[in-house]
Amino acid sequence: MTTTTQASRPTQAASTDVPRARGRGRRDDNRSALAFLAPFLILYVLFVIGPALYGLVMSFFDTSLVKSGLGKFAGLSNYVEAFKSADFWSSMWHTVLFTILTTPPLVILSFIFALLAERATHGKWFFRLAFFAPYILPSATVALIWIWLYTPDLGLASGVVQKVGITAPQWLGDPNWAMWSIAATTVWWTLGFNFVLYLAGLQEIPRELYESSSLDGASPWQQMRSITIPLLRRTTTLVVVLQIIASLKVFDQMYIMTSGGPNFSTRPALEYIYDIGFTDYRVGYGAAASTVYFVLLLIVSAVWFLQTRRAEKKV
Amino acid sequence: MATLTSEPKQFTARKGATKTAVSGSRLFNRLCTGVMIAFSIIWLIPLLWAVDTAFKPNGETAKLPVTWWIDHPTWGSFASILRQGDIWHWYLSSFLTSALIVILTVITASLAAFALSRLKFRGQGAILGFILLGLLIPIQVLIVPLFREVGGMGLLNTYWAVILPQVPTAIAVFVFKQFFDGLPRELEEAARMDGASTWWIYRGMAMPLIKPAIAAVSIFTFIWSWNNLLWPLLVLSNPKLMTIPVGLATVQGNFGIRYADTMAAALLGALPLIALFLFFQRQIVEGVAGTGLKG
Hints:
The complex is a heterodimer of chains A (about 325) and B (about 300). Chain A is mainly alpha-helical and about 325 residues long. Chain A is about 75% helix and about 0% strand.
C-alpha cells in the first residue's frame, strides 16, 4: 500500500473504489480516464485539430500574414484561384511526379535487397548499416552531400559519368534532369527504411516452410516465388502506402537543393504553399491551397484504408 | 529433427536436403552475398566521398580530375567550423528541442494510450476516433494556420514554438496502445484485487512492461525532431536558436566554393545521429520493424 502515497489525486479516488469495482464498467474509470487523456488531448486540440479548423476557416477569407484578424470574407474565391492557377497545378504535378519517380524504385529495390540479404551467408549487419545509415541523416546533410556530388565538373557524379565517356548533364541546373537527380538522392536516402521493413517481414515467414520445401527439392527461385513473395504481400502493401504518403510530403530536398528551380521545374506543392504564405504573405489563399493538397493526401490514405479492410476480411 | 530446427539455418539446409540441391543453394547464397556486398559499397560511396572531401584542404577540392586521393589531409575544415561557433548553438537547440519533444511525447502519448487500452469510460470510441483523425493530418498541411496561431501566442523565435506542435503525434498513441493491448488482463486484475491504483498500474506495472515500445517511440521521435526542417525553419529566424537542419540549410550559400568546409559542416550536423545509430542500431532497426508493421 506504499503506492497510494505516491498516487496523484484522481487516482486516490480510484483506489478507494477498487473493492466494489468489478465486472463491467468501473465507476471511477471515467474520472481517471479523463486525467490520463487530458495532457495529450489539450496539446492535440491546440496544435492539430485547432489549426486544422482555423486553416479551413481562413481559406474562406483574404487573410494576410502581416495583418491581424481574418480580413475580408472571400467566399470560395481562394479555391477558385487555386483551381485556376497554373503555378499551383504545376507544383501539385511536381509532387505527384516525384512520387511516381521515387515509389517504384524504393519499393522494388528494397524488396530485392532484402531478399538477397536474407539469403546472404555473411555480413547482414553490414548491409543493414550501409542501407539504413543514410536514413538517419538530416535532410540538410543529405542535400549538401548530393549538391556536392552533383556539382558540375568537380562533383563525383560528373567525374564517374565522364570516365565512361559521356558528357555529364547539369544534374540540378537542367530542368529536364533536376527532378530525376533529386529522386535519385531520395532513393539513396530513404531506401533503408523499406529495406528494414522487408527484412522484418521475411523474418516472420516460418523457417519450416523453407525446410520442408527444400526437402521436396524446391530450388531457391521456386521458394522465392511460391513462399516468400506471396507471404510478403501485407508488408508490401504497408511499404507502398507509407512510401506514397512520405513522397507526397516532399519539401526538404527541393528547398535546399534547387529552391524549387530551375525555373520552378522542381517546386513541390508544399513549397508553393510556403512561398504563397511566407513570401507573398497571403495566408488565406495558402490555407486554401493546403486544403486542396490535404484532400490529395486524404484520398491516398482512404484508398489504403479500404484496401487493408478488404484484405483483412479475406483472411 | 527437433534438434535440427533449432540450429542456424545454413546447417539445417545442408543436412536436410539432397546433396545436389544443397550445393546449388549454397552457391546461390554465396552469389547473393557477393551482390549485396557490391551494392552496400555503392550505397556507402556518397558518405565516404563526403568524409573524403571534408579532410581535403578547400583548394584541393576544386582540382581536376576528380580524385579520392588527398595530397594534404587536414582537420582544418572541422576545426574552422567548430571554431566559428554557430554550430554549437545549433547543437544546443537541436538537443534541447529534440529531448523535450521526446520526453513530452512519451509521457502524454503513453498516458492517453493507457486510458484507451486499459480503462473503460464513456465516449471511449469517440475519443479513439478523434485521435485516429490525427493520423490523417500531417503537420505539413497545417503550417499556415499553425504559424499564425503560434505567432499569436507570442512564441515565435522560442524553443516552445518548435517543441509544442511536434508533441501530439497520434502515431505514438497508437504504438503505445498496441503494446498495452498486448499485456495480459490477468496481471492487471490481480493488481486491482490487491488494491493497486490506476496510476500504479500504469506507472509501476504497465510502463516497465512496454520498455521496447518506449525505446522505439523515443528513438524515432528523436530522429524525426532532430531532422525536421520545415517547421523549425518557419518559426526560428534567430541564428542563435536555429536547429542543425535549419542552420545547415541557411548557411549553405555562405560557404561558396569551400566544398571541404561544407562537407565538414554537413557531417558535424549529422554526427550525434550517427553516434546514436551506431549505439542503438539493433533497437532502431527492431523499432522500424515492430512499429512500422503494426502501425
